């Protein structure tokens, strides 16, 4: 690193001498006026020697003449840009020298390309338009976009040895600055003779003229002429790209690496935070700004960044990444998985399995014993429903992603299921509520740029998981951040209005969350909302809510302990062994009468070749990309009848009504069930499976403390079997507040009122008051005082 920096420093010390030699070099008589102009624009501005660039100029001129290097006239005329396929320099023998120079001095190769392409276009433009050479010389510098450059470079390889080389990386945009004007060429007027002198700014570094070039003047006072046609300004934007660690298990537990990138001209405003992109650029070094090295060692400490010559959104097509440079290409997909012929053969073989649903469920997180229905629900959220087109203005946003909440006692494998879901998701993000997660860390952060007061957007977990899955563990520990999830879970977007920036970012993310009940153990006398102390508006957005209870069961505990002992001895779930069996008969202690559970559970002695996690991840990505099922009439009837049955059971006054949100959840889950088997039509059997899965979820939600199903209680309502207790209590408080003109009651006063009404509380009076506080009827004021907010329960 020190050798490279010293070389850079020596080059900067000699820059003025070298510039003087090049400027005073006698012009070759063979050069036309156009070539002289192009030399000043591309060659002399970069301080290259003739023996460095002349051979490469001839090679590129030959490639253009033989039509090996194809130039798009329309692209040059409309965008002032030319797209060059980099595979030309790899496959064509004549172009191998250009490939070598890009591997060593990419700036020189890029300058030669710009020179010859600009020359070809200018001569052709002059012949067609019949313009004189003066008009041609006023053409702005062109940009060259290099596409299909391979191979990809790892973020860890971009060090000082890669400076001046051309690299291609793939990552996720986590930060995007505002667009700013960047001056690349400035005209200066002499303060004495009023002569004009043009100075090119290398790598955005401001360079003031040393003295006037007019003969006999030699003045050193200049005034920048910002309105001159020779002053060239382009758009510029700064990006920060973060590496993807999903494919590399060695990167677990390490902070992901990031690389700063600079884009200009037509490349600005092409990506937003959260996009997965492929970037091709020149590795450059810049002096570090800020920090402890800002003054003492400003000339020796450098930072590496990429000056991009192309950036495109990555796709999951078979051919690889969408790096064609086509501005009209479909940029909606953010899947980063590529499918080889071997992968497609595996997908076809897996599709032919007779009982695919059972195989996929048992292949998901095999280290966790049981919980087949919970695994099925999480898998349905990974596959997701059919995405509705919401890009048109005025369309109503209908989400196609399902959200799943797993609530249960500690030690039941909730975190393991979430980690398995994150690893299987083609685009997965995992966060934990106990590690200091903030609302801005989940959504979007506005940060000030270094050296200016402008704001830049930094993507949070939900934006980074766009078109993927965001797994949130310890969901109950982040109560202050729950409100920031409401918009993202339903509208699938995140709106921000801060610091003068008003924008909306996509967050089409499926959320899989796990939470522990308050007190350490789930209380069946309370509802899910009361056990978690969670807002009912947030709970209603989850399509499936599973409750895992640690009930003592002698048979279940026997098989569970045996499974754990085998797993730690290395004899359980060896995926390389296709003949592993379950010799003992496992009782159906989790079925709750569910036929779906019996079909998903592995039978005694049943052989099953589980699908490896990496291949299952590719299968999920293939299904999400190529399968878009529609609801059949028979499946629609099954879902409609079940929805109407739920509406009928919840039409009493004491219950929270079932809304169309539950019907949309049924449709999404049914579409995901069909997508799991790569079918384009949702069958009646798919609808029946989803109905059984939702019944299992509702069974846990509506079961009370004595094991009875009470449909008057909902996951969002109170834990009492009847809400008359709440009504009587609040009506009495309302009467007392009107009588004494005071809405604040102490805890002792509330308890005295309950005793006067002869009210009974199965879970205790404090839990009763906390439940009213969570639902907004009583607002806590101080430690032992509450203010009445609502007078009654309708």
TrEMBL record:
<keyword id="KW-0238">DNA-binding</keyword>
<dbReference type="GO" id="GO:0000724">
    <property type="term" value="P:double-strand break repair via homologous recombination"/>
</dbReference>
<comment type="similarity">
    <text>Belongs to the MCM family.</text>
</comment>
<dbReference type="InterPro" id="IPR003593">
    <property type="entry name" value="AAA+_ATPase"/>
</dbReference>
<dbReference type="InterPro" id="IPR018525">
    <property type="entry name" value="MCM_CS"/>
</dbReference>
<dbReference type="InterPro" id="IPR031327">
    <property type="entry name" value="MCM"/>
</dbReference>
<keyword id="KW-0539">Nucleus</keyword>
<keyword id="KW-0347">Helicase</keyword>
<dbReference type="Pfam" id="PF25051">
    <property type="entry name" value="WHD_MCM8"/>
</dbReference>
<keyword id="KW-0547">Nucleotide-binding</keyword>
<dbReference type="InterPro" id="IPR056875">
    <property type="entry name" value="MCM8/REC_WHD"/>
</dbReference>
<dbReference type="InterPro" id="IPR033762">
    <property type="entry name" value="MCM_OB"/>
</dbReference>
<dbReference type="GO" id="GO:0031261">
    <property type="term" value="C:DNA replication preinitiation complex"/>
</dbReference>
<dbReference type="GO" id="GO:0017116">
    <property type="term" value="F:single-stranded DNA helicase activity"/>
</dbReference>
<feature type="region of interest" description="Disordered">
    <location>
        <begin position="315"/>
        <end position="334"/>
    </location>
</feature>
<dbReference type="Pfam" id="PF17207">
    <property type="entry name" value="MCM_OB"/>
</dbReference>
<keyword id="KW-0378">Hydrolase</keyword>
<dbReference type="InterPro" id="IPR027417">
    <property type="entry name" value="P-loop_NTPase"/>
</dbReference>
<feature type="compositionally biased region" description="Basic and acidic residues">
    <location>
        <begin position="316"/>
        <end position="334"/>
    </location>
</feature>
<dbReference type="GO" id="GO:0042555">
    <property type="term" value="C:MCM complex"/>
</dbReference>
<dbReference type="Pfam" id="PF17855">
    <property type="entry name" value="MCM_lid"/>
</dbReference>
<keyword id="KW-0234">DNA repair</keyword>
<feature type="domain" description="MCM C-terminal AAA(+) ATPase">
    <location>
        <begin position="356"/>
        <end position="564"/>
    </location>
</feature>
<dbReference type="GO" id="GO:0003697">
    <property type="term" value="F:single-stranded DNA binding"/>
</dbReference>
<dbReference type="InterPro" id="IPR001208">
    <property type="entry name" value="MCM_dom"/>
</dbReference>
<dbReference type="GO" id="GO:0006279">
    <property type="term" value="P:premeiotic DNA replication"/>
</dbReference>
<protein>
    <recommendedName>
        <fullName>DNA helicase</fullName>
        <ecNumber>3.6.4.12</ecNumber>
    </recommendedName>
</protein>
<dbReference type="GO" id="GO:0005656">
    <property type="term" value="C:nuclear pre-replicative complex"/>
</dbReference>
<dbReference type="GO" id="GO:0016787">
    <property type="term" value="F:hydrolase activity"/>
</dbReference>
<dbReference type="GO" id="GO:0043596">
    <property type="term" value="C:nuclear replication fork"/>
</dbReference>
<dbReference type="GO" id="GO:0005524">
    <property type="term" value="F:ATP binding"/>
</dbReference>
<dbReference type="Pfam" id="PF00493">
    <property type="entry name" value="MCM"/>
</dbReference>
<keyword id="KW-0067">ATP-binding</keyword>
<dbReference type="InterPro" id="IPR041562">
    <property type="entry name" value="MCM_lid"/>
</dbReference>
<keyword id="KW-0227">DNA damage</keyword>
<dbReference type="InterPro" id="IPR012340">
    <property type="entry name" value="NA-bd_OB-fold"/>
</dbReference>
């Amino acid at each position: 690193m020190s050798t490279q920096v010293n070389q850079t420093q020596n080059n900067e010390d000699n820059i003025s001498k070298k510039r003087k030699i090049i400027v005073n070099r006698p012009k070759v008589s063979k050069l036309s006026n156009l070539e002289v102009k192009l030399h000043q624009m591309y060659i002399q501005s970069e301080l290259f020697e003739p023996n460095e660039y002349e051979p490469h100029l001839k090679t590129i001129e030959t490639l253009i003449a033989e039509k090996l290097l194809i130039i798009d006239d329309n692209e040059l005329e409309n965008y002032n840009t030319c797209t060059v396929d980099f595979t030309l320099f790899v496959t064509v023998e004549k172009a191998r020298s250009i490939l070598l120079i890009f591997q060593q001095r990419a700036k020189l190769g890029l300058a030669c390309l710009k020179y010859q392409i600009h020359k070809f276009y200018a001569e052709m433009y002059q012949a067609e338009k019949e313009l004189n050479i003066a008009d041609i010389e006023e053409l702005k510098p062109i940009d060259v976009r290099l596409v299909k450059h391979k191979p990809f470079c790892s973020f860890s390889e971009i060090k000082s040895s890669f400076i001046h080389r051309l690299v291609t990386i793939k990552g996720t945009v986590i930060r995007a600055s505002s667009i700013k004007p960047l001056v690349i060429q400035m005209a200066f007027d002499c303060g004495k003779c009023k002569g004009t002198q043009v100075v090119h700014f290398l790598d955005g570094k401001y360079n003031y003229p040393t003295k006037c070039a007019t003969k006999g003047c030699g003045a050193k006072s200049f005034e920048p002429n910002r309105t001159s046609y020779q002053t060239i300004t382009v758009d510029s934007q700064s990006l920060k790209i973060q590496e993807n660690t999903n494919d590399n298990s060695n990167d677990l537990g390490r902070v992901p690496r990031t690389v700063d990138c600079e884009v200009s001209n037509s490349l600005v405003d092409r990506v937003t935070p959260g996009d997965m992109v492929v970037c091709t650029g020149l590795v450059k070094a810049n002096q570090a700004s800020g920090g402890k090295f800002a003054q003492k060692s400003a000339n020796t400490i450098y930072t590496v960044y990429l000056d991009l010559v192309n950036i495109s959104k990555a796709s999951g097509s078979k051919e690889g990444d969408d790096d064609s440079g086509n501005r009209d290409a479909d940029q909606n997909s953010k899947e980063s998985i590529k499918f080889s012929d071997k992968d497609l053969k595996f997908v076809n073989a897996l599709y032919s399995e007779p009982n695919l649903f059972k195989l996929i469920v048992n292949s998901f997180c095999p280290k966790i014993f049981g919980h087949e229905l919970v695994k099925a629900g999480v898998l349905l959220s990974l596959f997701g429903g059919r995405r509705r087109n919401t890009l048109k203005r005025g369309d109503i946003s209908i989400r196609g992603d399902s959200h799943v909440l797993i609530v249960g006692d500690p030690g039941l494998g909730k975190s393991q299921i979430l980690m398995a879901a994150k690893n299987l998701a083609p685009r997965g993000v995992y966060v934990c509520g106990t590690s200091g997660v903030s609302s801005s860390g989940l959504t979007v952060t506005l940060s000030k740029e270094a050296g200016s007061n402008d704001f830049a957007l930094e993507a949070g977990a939900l934006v980074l998981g766009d078109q993927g899955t965001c797994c949130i563990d310890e969901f109950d520990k982040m109560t202050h951040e729950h409100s920031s999830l409401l918009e993202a879970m339903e509208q699938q977007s995140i709106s921000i209005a801060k610091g003068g920036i008003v924008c909306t970012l996509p967050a089409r993310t499926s959320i899989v969350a796990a939470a522990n009940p308050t007190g350490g153990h789930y209380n069946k006398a309370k509802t899910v909302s009361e056990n978690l102390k969670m807002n009912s508006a947030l709970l209603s957005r989850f399509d499936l809510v599973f409750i895992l209870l640690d009930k003592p069961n002698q048979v279940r505990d026997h098989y569970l302990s045996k499974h754990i002992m085998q797993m730690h001895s290395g004899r359980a779930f060896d995926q390389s062994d296709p003949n592993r069996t379950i010799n003992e008969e496992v009782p159906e202690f989790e079925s709750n009468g569910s036929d779906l559970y019996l079909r998903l559970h592995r039978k005694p002695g049943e052989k099953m070749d589980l699908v490896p996690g990496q291949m299952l991840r590719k299968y999920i990505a293939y299904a999400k990309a190529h399968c878009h099922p529609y609801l059949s009439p028979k499946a629609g009837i099954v879902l409609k009848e079940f929805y109407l049955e739920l509406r009928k059971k919840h039409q009493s006054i004491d219950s929270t009504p079932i809304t169309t949100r539950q019907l949309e959840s049924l449709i999404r889950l049914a579409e995901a069930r069909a997508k799991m088997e790569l079918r384009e039509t949702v069958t009646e059997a798919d609808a029946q499976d989803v109905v059984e899965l939702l019944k299992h979820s509702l069974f846990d939600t509506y079961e009370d403390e004595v094991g009875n199903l009470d449909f008057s209680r909902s996951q969002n309502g109170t834990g009492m079997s009847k809400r008359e207790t709440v009504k009587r209590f609040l009506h009495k408080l309302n009467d007392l507040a009107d009588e004494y003109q005071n809405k604040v009651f102490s805890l002792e006063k509330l308890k005295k009122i309950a005793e006067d009404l002869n009210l009974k509380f199965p879970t205790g009076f404090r839990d009763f008051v906390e439940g009213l506080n969570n639902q907004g009827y009583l607002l806590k004021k101080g430690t032992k005082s509450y203010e009445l907010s609502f007078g009654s329960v309708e």
